[in-house]
Amino acid sequence: MKLYSTNNKDLRVSFKEAVFNSMPQDKGLYMPVEIPQLDAEFIANIEKYSLQEIAFKVASTLLKDEIPTEDLKALIDDAINFEAPAVKLDDKTFVLELFHGPSLAFKDFGARFMSRIMAYFLKDGEQLLDVLVATSGDTGGAVALGFLGVPNTRVTILYPEGKVSPIQELQLTTNGQNIRAIEVKGTFDDCQALVKQAFADDELNAKFRLTSANSINISRLIPQTFYYFNTYAQLKKQGLNNVVFSVPSGNFGNIGAGLLAYKLGLPVKQFIAATNINDTVPRFLESGIYETKPSTQTYSNAMDVGAPSNWVRIMNLFGDDVESLKKVVTSYRFNDEETLVGIKEIDSRFNYVACPHTAIAYLAIEKFRTENPKDDSAAVFLSTAHACKFPDIFPVDIASKIEIPEQVTALESLPQHADNLGVDFEGFKSYLLNKA
Ligand SMILES: *Cc1c(COP(=O)(O)O)cnc(C)c1O
Prior knowledge:
The structure is a single chain. By secondary structure, this protein is an alpha/beta fold. Helix content is 44%, strand content 17%. It is built from 19 helices and 14 strands. The chain has helices spanning 15-21, 40-44, 51-63, 69-79, 107-121, 138-147, 166-173, 188-200, 202-207, 218-237, 253-264, 280-287, 311-317, 322-328, 336-350, 356-371, 396-399, 406-412, 425-434; strands at 2-5, 8-14, 30-32, 86-90, 93-97, 129-134, 153-160, 179-184, 209-211, 243-248, 270-275, 329-333, 378-383, 419-421. It has a six-stranded mixed sheet, with helices on both faces. Strands 9-6-7-8-14 form a five-stranded parallel sheet. Strands 2-1-3 form a three-stranded antiparallel sheet. The protein is globular and about 65 Å long. It binds pyridoxal-5'-phosphate.
C-alpha cells in the first residue's frame, strides 16, 4: 500500500513511513493511493466469519505487501482481543458496543492496532520508541493501555491535575511497566504545549526517537473499518441486508473509517454523521461553506472539535465531490439539552444506558427515520464509550443503573503512581533526559 498526502497527490510513501511520520511534512494527511476491493465472495459469505477473521481479511487486502500473512494474523489476534457486539434493541434498531476494550472506548481499536504495527516495524535492536501524549482524559487511556507491555516502546502521558475523571486517572496511573504518567499543575493546553516543545527540541530529538502516536495516524484508521464489516455480518446473520450507521463524530476518524469500509466494498445504505453543537460538518453539508470554529464545551466532550482533522480524508475518498458524498452521508447536530432527552429516551424505551456521545448518535438515527419514513433499513448507532466514564452527566435514577465493568474494578486495587511537574518546559525536559 502506497500513500499520498492530501496536500500533495504526487507524494508516495510506504505504509511503514506513514506510520512513523504520522503526518506528512506538508501537514496534509496520508491516504492510500489505491483502495482495493474486497472480493465479492467474501462479502456474500461474511456472516460465517468472526470479528478477528474479518479483521484479518480486511487488513490483508490493504497490507499484504507490507506485512507477511502469518505476522499480520498474529498481530490482529493480539490487537483485537475483545468483541464488538451489535446489541439488538428492537427489530430494526441496534447499538454497536465499541467499548469492550481495556479503556472502555472505541479508541482501543486504533490504539492497540497502531501500537502493535509500530512494535512490528521496530525490529530487534532498533532504538526504543518514545511516545509522548498530552491528554484531557480519554485518548491518554487508550494510548497507554494500547502500548502497555508492547516491547521496545515507552509511553509518557501528561495530564492536567484535577481535570480528569477518577476512572480516567486510574487508567493513566496504574499501569507501570513501559507507561509513565505525569500530573501537570496546569491545563490540558499546558500539557499539549509541553509535548509540542519536546518535539521541537534538538537535544531531545538527538537522544530519543520521539513520536506522538496521534489520532490522525493511518494505522489508527484501518482497524476501525473492521467493526463496520463485522456489524454487517452480524445483521446479515439475522436476515437484515440494508444498514444505516449513525456515528457520533468529533475528528471524523470513526466515520472516516466507515466510509473507507464502504469504498472497500461494504454495502451500506447511509452514514449519519452525528455531532454536538460543534457542527462544522453539518453546516458545511447544509450551506456548502466549510468554516471551522473554536470548539465549545459540551456533555459529549470527546466530540468537542471545531476543525475536524479527518474531514479532508473523507472529501478525498469522494474525489472532493460534495454531491456524491451527500448521497451517502447525512449529518445532524444536537445540543446538550437534546442529549439529555436522548439519554432518558433510550433508558425509557429500551432500558439501556448510553453515554452522551452514543445518545447523540441515537438522536440522529431517529431524526433520519423521521425524515425518511419509507427507508426500512436496520439502524445501527455506534456506542463509542461506556457510560461509566461520564458519571456526572446522568440523572441519579439512570446513573444508579450503570454497572462498572471489571476492567475498572480490577484497577481499583492497584497502586497509583504519577510524577508531578509544573508547566515549565525546562522541568519537563530535564525529567525526560534524566529519568530514563
Ligand atoms: C474520540 C471519541 C469520539 C469521536 O470520534 P472521532 O473519530 O474523533 O470522530 C466519540 N465518542 C467518544 C467516546 C470518543 O472518545
